[in-house]
Sequence to fold (180 residues):
Amino acid sequence: MANPYTLTLSVDGEPHPVTGADDTEPLLYVLRNQLGLNGPKFGCGVAQCGCCTVLVNGVITRSCVTKMSAVTEGDEIITLDGLGSTKQPHPLQQAFIDEQAGQCAYCSNAMIMGALGFLNGRISGGNRQVPSEDEIKQFLSGESSQPGQSSQSTYVYLCRCGSHPRIVRAIQQAAKEMVH
Ligand code: FES
Ligand code: FES
Fold:
């Protein structure tokens, strides 16, 4: 049953009061429509592509299927918008630029935020090796979950433009910087 919601979200380190009439509203809509963020995107709306990916308390989360009723104050939400800046891009953002890892770039949020969760999970689990091409492919194709998380975080990351070879190279480039 739908209920109104009012809470303060922590997004990219900043508090944001949000309110709505229906707590079945997807987190994605709140991030885009109330907070004006345009990193997370609407793709499929059913957790199948990754366009809406954010990290919630470090866990890869598909915000298109995450209802506001499932979000609580104190959750730390990280989006692509808060990852870096033009002057100081995050290693993943810089690597995607260096490798030109996209054509239309509609999937870039999926790939960068998914890779962030993937690499952070490996590093916090004590694995500081740069992932192999096969390990990255397995992660992006949903054959392995975010390290340290349950299989619930096993997702597919879709690129309609066929940029996967460049995306894999970009993730490896960023990993080299992030593991040091
Ligand atoms: S829009 Fe959420 S996974 Fe496709
Ligand atoms: S670059 Fe177009 S969907 Fe990936």
User: Anything to note?
Assistant: DSSP finds five helices and five strands in the chain.
